[in-house]
Specification:
The chain is of the alpha+beta class and about 150 residues long. Helix content is about 35%, strand content about 20%. It has a single domain, classed as Beta-Lactamase (2-Layer Sandwich).
Length: about 150
């Protein structure tokens, strides 16, 4: 099975950093989804310069997820794509295993770029449950950006 491509000329450009008000709205939407499901999560939001803007650890979320959520957000931002792209490459095996040699990539689903007006203004990373559930909560945060 061939690995999916990681390089695309269609990747969005970086934009101005996400504002605190907008980050709060993204966080509230993601937290609402986690609460609706009863999932203890850690949610991190970084701006377009990879600076941490917000980090919320929901009560009883595992401590190990604090750094994981941040790393998912940073990976999505730095590489301008969902972290699932890297997870998929690893699952394909072969040359995809080279990703494990990169110290700045977290190849786990749950990190998404935050895009407004066609530009990346930040990213969200979620950790605490299974990767698909993390991604569900991250996607819920995106709805406020449309």
């Amino acid at each position: 099975m061939a690995n999916p491509p990681l390089i695309s000329p269609d990747l969005p450009q970086y934009g101005e950093p996400i504002s605190l008000d907008r980050a709060k709205a993204v966080m509230e939407a993601a937290e609402a989804e986690a609460a609706r499901e009863g999932w203890p999560m850690v949610i991190a939001i970084v701006d377009s310069g990879a600076n941490l803007v917000m980090l919320h650890r929901i009560d009883q979320a595992q401590l190990g997820s604090v750094l994981v959520a941040q790393q998912k957000a940073e990976t999505a931002l730095r590489f301008r794509r969902p972290t699932k792209a890297f997870q998929d490459v690893l699952e394909g095996g072969g040359t995809g295993w080279r990703i494990l040699g990169m110290t700045n990539v977290l190849p786990l689903e749950g990190g998404l770029p935050l895009i407004a007006d066609g530009r990346i203004i930040g990213a969200i990373g979620v950790s605490g449950m299974q990767s698909g559930q993390d991604a569900q909560v991250a996607r819920a945060g995106l709805v406020v950006l449309v």
